[in-house]
Amino acid sequence: MNKNKRLIYISLLAAQGVVITMLERAIPFPFAFAPGAKLGLANIITLLAIFTLPYKDSLKVVWMRLLISTLLGGTLSTFLYSFAGAFLSYGGMLLVRLLGPKRVSMIGISATGGILHNVGQLAMASLIAQSFSVMLYLPILSITGIFSGVAVGVAANYLLEHVSTIRQFQSEEAAKSKLTKAWYEASLVYRKEHD
User: What's the pTM?
Assistant: First the structure.
């Protein structure tokens, strides 16, 4: 993949993440029992970036989505919460992905990201409030994080399997990265078994 094609792909992923984030902000909180709980649909884009781009480029997607979303309708506090959640989630998903396709699925990686996103936001809230009582929301938010993470993982997996452009980027990255190659080959085996 040439440099221009990669930059366009990174930009498109970041733009799609921003649009999803803005749409999600317009949706009322679906979980009234857990203030601040959201579906985390923009993590679909983060997962696609992790599975189709090298580390430094997927990090660019996360940064661009975070910064542009904040500029389009956020505040300093929303930036801090989003920053803590997004980067703890991103780092956790990268680490769990290292286990490989024989030990964990994309859905498991996404669920991990959903939980860690909530942990990051609550840790930032505790830091700002200078009180650990905020962490009492963690069990409730962990449950919602697991369910939303599973839904996001299913959606990202579907896109990775059925959108030819995304599969092309993954196959090109698989030629350079052993880990991406292992995930790509596992998806090919899965497709053959279920076709």
Answer: 0.89
CA–CA gap between residue 100 and residue 183 (Å, rounded): 7
Radius of gyration of the chain, Cα coordinates, nearest whole angstrom: 17
Q: Are 180 and 94 in contact (CB under 8 A)?
A: no
Cβ-based neighbour number of residue 185 at 10 Å: 12
End-to-end, the C-alpha distance of the chain in Å comes to 29
CB within 8 Å of 76: residues ≥ 6 apart: none
CA dist 168 to 1, 72, 73, 144, 150, Å? 10, 31, 34, 33, 24
Question: What span, in angstroms and rounded, lies between the C-alpha atoms of 83 and 149?
Answer: 18
Structure letter (DSSP) for residue 32? T
Residues in the chain: 195
Question: Does residue 160 come out as left (phi exceeding 0), alpha (psi in the -120 to 50 range) or beta?
Answer: alpha
Q: Write the Ramachandran bin of 97: left for phi over 0, alpha for psi from -120 to 50, otherwise beta.
A: alpha
Residue-wise pLDDT tens digits, 89-141: 999 999 999 999 999 999 999 999 999 998 998 898 889 888 888 888 888 88
